[in-house]
Amino acid sequence: MRRRNPQQLLHHNFSWTGILVNGGLHFFSSFIIGRATTSIVGTVLLLDKKLLR
């Protein structure tokens, strides 16, 4: 079993961190967009109900 040099290990950890960070940002942005869309749709539906009355 050959030993990994620290640089390789660091690179491996860094790539995993990058994947996690990218995934987190993607999830966060999609969550924000989803919430914004939901609130906009909710507002439109509320206004619709008020106008239809």
Automatic annotation (TrEMBL):
Name of the protein: Uncharacterized protein
Organism in which the protein naturally occurs: Populus trichocarpa (Western balsam poplar)
